[in-house]
Amino acid sequence: MAVKENNIPRHIAIIMDGNGRWAKKRGLPRTAGHAAGAEAFRRTANYCRTLGVEYLTVYAFSTENWKRSEEEVAGIMRLLGKYLEEALADMEKNRVRFKFFGDLSRLSPQLQKLCYDAQNRSADYDVQVNFCLNYGGRDEIVKASAAFARDVAEGKHQPEDLTEELLSSYLYSKDVPDPELIIRPSGEKRTSNFLLWQSAYSEYVFLNVLWPDFQPKDLDEAISEYCRRNRRFGGV
Ligand code: IPE
Ligand code: IPE
Ligand code: MG
Question: How do strand 181-184 and strand 203-206 relate by DSSP bridges?
Answer without folding.
Answer: parallel
